[in-house]
From TrEMBL:
Pfam families: TetR_N
Domain HTH tetR-type: 1-61
Residue ranges flagged as DNA-binding region: 24-43
Domain of life: Bacteria
Transmembrane segments: none
Organism whose genome encodes this protein: Neobacillus rhizosphaerae
Name under which the protein is recorded: HTH tetR-type domain-containing protein
Length: 278
């Protein structure tokens, strides 16, 4: 586990400077100070390493944003917290954000494209749930346009501070985008993207975690790996709840809180929140 993390961290440094295609396995192993044999014990190929990096960062990001949307009780604060968490994450992981934005427009790797499409769809689902909660029937005809407006804001302003060295004031930017989003939500009357068009853009998701059996498989692996007693016991109880529901929603939510901040449990907590609709 430690060696895989080292390879991922060092490879990210090279990918940020050179891009995916221009970086070789040889360069990665030299940068890590390990042999090619040691690399291939951790990853079957450079493509597998790239997908592992994408999974690592996107799972952390999606699970955190989803948690904020589900657990912010004050609607007046929700949109601000959403934007703040998003740009704060981009800022903290700027190397990854840069290569992700560059590679999405250049990659011909089908598996990479499908992976990014999958996470993009998950993110759109989180945005849609936030829009419906904040604006309700008021945006029935325009909510799908709003999804792309919000994503457009994020892409545009991320590009500014990632590639143009514009100073980032996350607080001011978040407040500005809250104002812009509210104006669009309350005054846009001509929809362009219908529900049918939105669904046509997005193919059905087919990834781990979409079925009960797959969630159980991930949980069993995490239970084996976990050494911390509170997180391990919480995972065991959540697995039992998945197999035979007996606990109240409040208790399930408390168990999810026990595991949410553990770096190896963020994704499973996200999947379980969706499954239990919490």
């Amino acid at each position: 586990m430690i060696k895989k993390q080292l390879i991922m961290e060092k490879a990210l440094e090279l990918f940020a400077k050179q891009g995916f295609e221009a970086t070789s396995v040889q360069q990665i192993t030299e940068h890590c100070g390990i042999s090619k044999g040691a690399f291939y014990l951790s990853f079957k190929s450079k493509d597998e390493l790239i997908l592992a990096l994408i999974n690592h960062f996107m799972m952390q990001f999606i699970s955190e944003i989803d948690y904020i949307v589900r657990n912010t009780n004050d609607d007046k604060e929700l949109l601000y917290k959403f934007y703040y968490a998003t740009f704060d994450s981009f800022h903290k992981h700027s190397d990854f954000a840069k290569i992700l934005m560059k590679e999405q427009g250049q990659s011909i790797n089908k598996e990479l494209i499908l992976k990014m499409h999958y996470y993009d769809r998950l993110f759109e689902t989180v945005i849609l749930s936030m829009i419906e909660r904040l604006y309700g029937k008021e945006v029935k005809q325009t909510k799908y346009d709003l999804i792309y407006c919000i994503k457009g804001f994020m892409n545009t302003y991320s590009t500014l501070f990632l590639f143009s060295n514009v100073p980032l004031d996350v607080n001011k930017l978040s407040k500005s985008l809250v104002e812009k989003t509210n104006l669009l939500a309350r005054h846009t009357t001509v929809p362009f993207i219908s529900q049918e068009l939105f669904q046509m853009f997005n193919h059905p998701m087919n990834e781990e975690g979409t079925k009960k059996e797959q969630i159980l498989e991930i949980m069993e692996q995490k239970i084996k790996e976990m050494v911390e007693p509170i997180e391990k016991e919480s995972l065991i109880l959540l697995k039992e709840q998945l197999l035979e529901p007996t606990l109240s929603p409040a208790i399930v939510k408390g168990l999810l809180e026990n595991i949410r901040n553990h770096p190896h449990c963020k994704w499973i907590s996200y999947l379980l929140r969706g499954y239990f609709k919490l």
